[in-house]
Amino acid sequence: TDAANYFSNYKSTAEGSYEALLDNVTDTYFHSAYNDEPGDGSGVHYIQATLAEGVDEFYFYMLPRSGNGNNRPKDITVSGSNDGTEFTKICDVTTTLDGSMNPYVSAKLGTAGTTYKYIRLTVNSTNSGTKFFTLSELYFLPANADVTKLVDAYKNFASSSITSTEMSTAAEALINAETVVALANIKKEIN
User: Fold this and answer.
1) CA separation (Å) from 179 to 63, 117, 143?
2) d(CA 112, CA 19)
3) What is the pLDDT of residues 56-105, one digit of tens each?
4) Which runs of E-coded beta strand occur in 19-127?
5) CA Rg, the chain, in Å?
6) Can you state the angle between helices 164-174 and 145-159, rounded to 10 degrees?
7) In angstroms, rounded to a whole number, what is the distance separating the alpha carbons of residues 117 and 17?
8) Which residues of 25-57 are buried (b: 16+ CB within 10 A; e: fewer)?
9) Model pLDDT, residue 160
């Protein structure tokens, strides 16, 4: 995974980094521009990834910045491209990112048979009404059988109403050697 595969048209020059999106540390983060920092002039902030290989169906995973419950992407337009210049809208997504530290995992996106090498997330609004946004982690995952199995397990786990003790036991069961190896392989495929 390489932070050089990320690009934003309005990356803040004051704080945050692309590397933070991939470091698995919630105290580090990406920040899009604010306080009249320069951008491409469009006024619409996006972040995009160049994928190692084109994908037709995929998921994305977002973890919000810790220490600040604001500026979290809420309404997003997801687009794809094969040349990094001309983008085609794939869909609009409304995330569940709010003031908590709960991550967001998208539904399966894309269309079988239509591959994209570049995926762009254009943030149309945030949970606090700003045009700029922050994220601690951002991953794009190919919708292969292994990833889909993990995403389904995560979503079933996250949506169930269980006690903290049951959650701890379930988390230990999910994080076993096979899952860790599968997640490591998935991270290799991302970028």
Assistant:
1) 19, 27, 16
2) 30
3) 999 999 989 988 889 999 999 999 999 999 999 999 999 988 888 888 88
4) 30-31, 45-55, 57-63, 73-81, 88-94, 104-105, 109-110, 116-126
5) 16
6) 170
7) 22
8) ebebbbbbbbeeeebeeeeebbbbbbbeeebeb
9) 58
Contact present, 117 and 79 (Cβ < 8 Å): no
Identity of residue 171? A
Which stretches in the chain have pLDDT values below 70?
Answer: 1, 157-191
44, two tokens: 């619409």
pLDDT of residue 189: 47
* Per-residue model confidence (pLDDT) at position 170: 44
**Strand bridging mode 134-135 / 30-31:** antiparallel
Q: 6, 62 in Cβ contact below 8 A?
A: no
Task: Provide the token pair at 2.
Answer: 């390489």
Rounded to whole angstroms, how far apart are CA atoms 84 and 54?
12
List the one residue out of 138, 137, 130 whose CA is nearest residue 34. Answer: 130
Q: How far is CA 105 from CA 37, 102, 140, 158, 182, in A?
A: 30, 10, 10, 10, 17
**The pLDDT of residue 40:** 85
The tokens for 126 are 């945030």
Q: Are 174 and 158 in contact (CB under 8 A)?
A: no
User: What per-residue confidence (pLDDT) applies to 159?
Assistant: 62
